[in-house]
């Protein structure tokens, strides 16, 4: 014959199954229900003692109590209980107002609150319920009711804590995975860019420098942070099309025949063919702001669209005499105009196995002479404004054989 379950007050150990604030991967210490911190706020010391005695008999031991009702709110906040037993009608304080204040504080919005009141007024009950009171107990408190109601409240708190910690763990995992993905993406792009440069007897630092220069120029132009980050990566791929240029021409020492130079020039088209299939579209339909000329917002395809555009347009010239499309002025995508300055400066200022680096002032004067013909004047101004940072990048990513190519600190 089935028997009625024993009351919680009779079997305190039966309440220990669920942990408070416990989560599978959380560093927070699991707290058993019986260890939950119970706070009792009542202006009558005897009421506090009676409630505490009943709960102690049920196995609870973690208490905070106060009869200083004027400072009750501060005491509750300082104690951070797992459940609150709150009187309503108190001198110097009103339980409803305390409850309202608590619900306005992020850490207390879901705190279980059991209202202890001698007032059976329906309007008081309604006010408390609207503010999220968990339960009501009419004074004098029935000890048979108190412990199970406190247990239920603590179990609810336990579930809330578990859910909260699970959500936090999930958010942390997502952030970590996103960071891992971003790091992988950067590494893959760099490897691809470096593969192309190594065919050209370069160290791989050229692509990093061009990317960093492009980012610095974009920053000086006041472009959004995401665009600065993306162009720094995308510009590293500017010469990826060299992968498909025959060795006999790409690696030929000395001057190239016009026909051979024409083959070299195909690297912009080849690079575009390599990158473009991985873009969502070619960017022509992307919204661009009227002045900044960069896409208004970032999306999952922004980076590769930028890279495709750069591979195709970094040899265009502002006066229309460049290749492959012969675009002029602001018909050349901004990223192409930016990368053109970055690429030419690095080619001039860096040592290669077959040439010495050009003195910095000479590099600057060559860029200046091409203002408005090869280079967009506004982009060139941004380059010169970024020179202090550009010199730091040159020093940081100096080619290993480039011992004499350190930036000339005295000539800038
Ligand atoms: Fe190129």
TrEMBL record:
Domain (Response regulatory) ranges: 37-154
Coiled-coil parts of chain: 156-187
TM stretches of this protein: none
Stored Pfam families: HD_5, Response_reg
Domain (HD-GYP): residue spans on this chain: 181-399
Residue numbers bearing the 4-aspartylphosphate modification: 87
Biased composition (Low complexity): 12-21
Family matches, as InterPro entries: CheY-like_superfamily, Cyclic_di-GMP/3'3'-cGAMP_PDE, HD/PDEase_dom, HD_GYP_dom, Sig_transdc_resp-reg_receiver
Compositional bias of kind Polar residues: 1-11
PROSITE patterns linked: HD_GYP, RESPONSE_REGULATORY
Region (Disordered): 1-21
UniProt cross-references to SUPFAM superfamilies, sorted A to Z: CheY-like, HD-domain/PDEase-like
Gene3D superfamilies recorded: 3.40.50.2300, Hypothetical protein af1432
Keywords assigned: Coiled coil, Phosphoprotein
Protein name according to UniProt: Cyclic di-GMP phosphodiesterase VC_1348
Organism, as annotated: Novipirellula caenicola
């Amino acid at each position: 014959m089935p028997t009625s379950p024993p009351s919680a007050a009779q079997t305190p150990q039966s309440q220990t199954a669920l942990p408070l604030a416990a989560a599978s991967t959380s560093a927070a210490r699991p707290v058993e229900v019986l260890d939950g911190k119970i706070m009792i706020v009542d202006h009558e010391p005897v009421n506090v003692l009676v409630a505490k005695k009943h709960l102690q008999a049920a196995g609870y031991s973690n208490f905070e109590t106060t009869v200083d009702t004027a400072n009750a709110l501060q005491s509750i906040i300082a104690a951070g209980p797992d459940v609150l037993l709150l009187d309503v009608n108190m001198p110097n304080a009103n339980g409803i107002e305390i409850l309202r204040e608590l619900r306005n504080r992020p850490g207390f919005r879901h705190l279980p609150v059991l209202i202890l009141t001698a007032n059976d007024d329906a309007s008081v009950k309604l006010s408390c319920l609207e503010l999220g009171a968990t339960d009501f107990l009419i004074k004098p408190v029935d000890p048979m009711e108190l412990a199970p109601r406190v247990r239920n409240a603590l179990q609810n708190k336990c579930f809330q804590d578990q859910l909260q910690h699970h959500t936090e763990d999930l958010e942390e995992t997502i952030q970590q995975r996103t960071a891992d993905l971003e790091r992988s993406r950067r590494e893959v792009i760099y490897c691809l860019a470096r593969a192309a440069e190594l065919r050209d007897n370069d160290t791989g630092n050229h692509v990093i420098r061009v990317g960093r220069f492009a980012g610095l120029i974009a920053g000086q132009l006041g472009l959004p942070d995401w665009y600065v980050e993306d162009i720094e990566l995308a510009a590293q791929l500017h010469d990826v099309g060299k992968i498909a240029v025959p060795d006999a021409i790409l690696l030929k020492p000395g001057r190239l025949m016009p026909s051979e130079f024409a083959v070299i020039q195909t690297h912009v088209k080849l690079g575009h063919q390599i990158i473009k299939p991985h873009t969502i579209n070619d960017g022509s339909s992307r919204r661009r702001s009227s002045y900044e000329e960069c896409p208004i917002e970032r999306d999952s395809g922004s980076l590769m669209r930028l890279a495709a555009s750069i591979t195709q347009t970094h040899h265009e010239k502002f006066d229309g005499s460049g290749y492959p499309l012969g675009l002029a002025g602001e018909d050349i995508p901004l990223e192409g105009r930016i990368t053109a300055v970055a690429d030419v400066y690095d080619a001039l200022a860096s040592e290669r196995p077959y040439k010495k680096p050009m003195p910095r002032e000479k590099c600057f004067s060559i860029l200046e002479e091409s203002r408005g013909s090869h280079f967009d004047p506004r982009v060139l101004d941004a380059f010169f404004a970024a020179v202090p940072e550009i010199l730091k990048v040159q020093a940081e990513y100096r080619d290993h054989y480039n011992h004499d190519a350190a930036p000339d600190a005295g000539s800038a």
